[in-house]
Amino acid sequence: MFKYILRRILLMxxxxxxxxxxxxxxxxxxxxxxxxxxxxxxxxxxxxxxxLREELGLNGTYLERLGRYIGxxxxxDLGLDYNSRMPVIDIIKVAFPSTLKxxxxxxxxxxxxxxxIGIWAAVNQYTFADTFATILAxxxxxxxxxxxxxxxxxxxxxxxxxxxxxxxxxxxxLIMPAFCTSVSSLAAIARMTRSSxxxxxxxxxxxxxxxxxxxxxxxxxxxxxGNAMIPVVTTIGIQFGNLLGGAVLTETxxxxxxxxxxxxxxxxxxxxxxxxxxxxxxALSLCVLNLVIDLLYGxxxxxxxxxxx
Amino acid sequence: MKENNMxxxxxxxxxxxxxxxxxxxxxxxxxxxxxxxxxxxxxVFLAIFADVLTPYDATKSDAAxxxxxxxxxxxxxxxxxxxxxxxxxxxxxxxxxxVGLVSVTISAVGGIILGSIAxxxxxxxxxxxxxxxxIWMAIPSLLLNxxxxxxxxxxxxxxxxxxxxxNIPGYCRTIRASIMxxxxxxxxxxxxxxxxxxxxxxxxxxxxxxxxxxxxxATLRMGASILICASMSFMGLGVVPxxxxxxxxxxxxxxxxxxxxxxxxxxxxxIMYTVLAMxxxxxxxxxxxxxxLKN
Amino acid sequence: MSKLLExxxxxxxxxxxxxxxxxVEGLNLSLEKGQTLGLVGETGAGKTTTMKAIMxxxxxxxxxxxxxxxxxxxxxxLKKTVSEMRKIRxxxxxxxxxxxxxxxxxxxxxxxxxxxxIHIHNNISKRDAEVEAAKMLxxxxxxxxxxxxxxxxxxxxxxxxxxxxxxxxCNPDLLIADEPTTALDVTIQAQVLELxxxxxxxxxxxxxxxxxxxxxxxxxxxxVAIMYAGEIVEKxxxxxxxxxxxxxxxxxxxxxxxxxxSEAEMLTPIPGQMPDPSELPAGCNFCSRCAYAMEGCxxxxxxxxxxxxxxxxxxxxxTGETGKDVLDDE
Lengths: 309, 295, 330
Known about the structure:
heterotrimer; A: mainly alpha; B: 295 residues; mainly alpha; 11 helices
């Protein structure tokens, strides 16, 4: 088991490295010279330009800059904001927790409710429950997150005044952003759980369990569920990425100062270090989360563990 | 030998013709699929006839008629600059459908080229390309789109390019899978033996046979692409005003949510309608092409 | 000796969007205590459906039990409640299925799966059940320490042994084995069959063995029933069927078997295919493929007739007054 965990962790490192290089390279090719933009209009000398270049880490060849960037990363240095000269890492430190809260609440909600609805629909195939779940999944998939956010805001903040319209104060402030972000993942998880359960229920070992005289409720919970969860765990892993996107949009609607709003305003301001740092932190977080999912597999499915005995 | 080859090619085309009718019959059977098709046709109709449907102009402001509620004269009401919302939404249909088509074309062409190379040559080339594609696919789409737009700059064209690029992996995988399953077939051997070049084989044999899963990919992705475009515009990374794109309309309408929610209701509804239509259609096509996949 | 199992007039239909499938029609079958019945037939003949009907594990919908009675030790199983039936399954009637690769739950240890059936039907603790399960493993020739291993760690033959252990753990009166060796290598087949025979004799278990392999029937069965298109077309003792087969289909089955000693150049299959179960023909189901079909075979369905004590045939050739063997001249 330990070997399995170690192996997964080791595999993650080259992936992370690859992500860092890609993000850095993409940003490297952004057209325009930041130094010109910042010093526009002033009569800066070549010396001042050079000094600014150095301060912002814009001197040297591609490889030199890449090396410097990675080196800085290991120290927690993500460069400086072009406009304010604040360390990017500090800006992120302020923004990240908000996004984490929303995404975390969203995934918890989507997983619990999604699996429950999926099981309910599968066990009651061909009935109202199944149709309801299917329609729900379809709507959840098609609904634009930001529209849902606005509609909810209209109803619950403006008209009923039950929940705050902006900000993330307390649990009340978390409900709407988390719910909006969770909807599309909820749909996907419910859909996958349902189809996985339906497939598992048709398996021979389920028929065997019934032929042994196991109570139907136990057939579902002890035999079917464990096996059905394997592809569902994969889906949840995929949803982490979607959740990030959803959180970004929700932050915009509810004016929450998280990673999303940070990155978007940085793009508009051509503030490359902030965009780079933000995207990198998001990508690396996803790597870690996927590692957790991989490890979860090892626990659920004994066939996977065996490969590493 | 050449005759043999031609016979085989004919047999293949004949097989497709017979299957086509069968596929359409299965498609027609599904109510949701037909609904999706109908919904899409409505959109196409709006897109084509947008400028003649109403007497109003989509971009000219009319200060005297600002913020009017939906009525007989203005089906969806007017916005903060007095423009008829229904007209704007109809014009927005053109933008959304264009975005869908352009991004799908970019993705499909890129994916087919990449996937064809990987699948056809196999071995080391395949491994390298697929590793690359795996990581590409793993990056969440909004994040990837935002990053590409950060590099290229904001604007609708760049959004289309970004969406196109980010969807390449899906098509790449699909074509590669098709190629791998057809590679060993006899008629490929026959074509090779009769001296056809690799490119010719890919173009005239492999791609037509992979068409079915590609079409399913395309329809299912189009809805997502339109949604992403609207999301980017909503965040201010897409179109510039006064372009009547639905996401942008929602973004401006937001400021007037309290007193004039109709500015937001209709654009959002339009987005949802479109994505729903594409999803229903895509599911319908997938089920019609391979009913075994259905539950 | 009263019969252990008696099926009377069983009819099972599957109602699907493409029509009604007549899987089993008016089936009659019986079995004595401790005896082995071989149920022979092609794929799709309705053998598995019949067995699942006995166990009441048919998927309903789309399956529908249209009529019939299944008497087990005197009680009609079709009238039992869900919970009554549950107590019978695994304890008094057990069933094992064809493919051992998929019959076992991949994420549960084999010990646990055997212990489960013991625990449900006996009033003992889970821990004691595990101990019994380990003993059961030994009985089928697997080391007790392997109780904590998972199914994928066993070979096909050993998996089937686990399945047998599970089925016999509670000492059932009747074991239904649905093609238990079809998915196994020939050498393993022999081992598994021998194991089943041994245990059966030890525990005096009656068995219904579904198979399409007449060789296996010859080695293990006391009586045989031949099934075709949802009906039993011939049944009798082992010697009745093997030495005195009457129904043209049965004869055809025997003729299919390659003979080591003859000089045939080609195999003699039965031409044609089984009829579509959603569109069964009027008259005899086998008529279109029958080499001995007469006038009237295609329009009137023959009745089951006892042509010798315990030997039944469903064929117009035998419903004549004399019962004379019309085919003797062949």
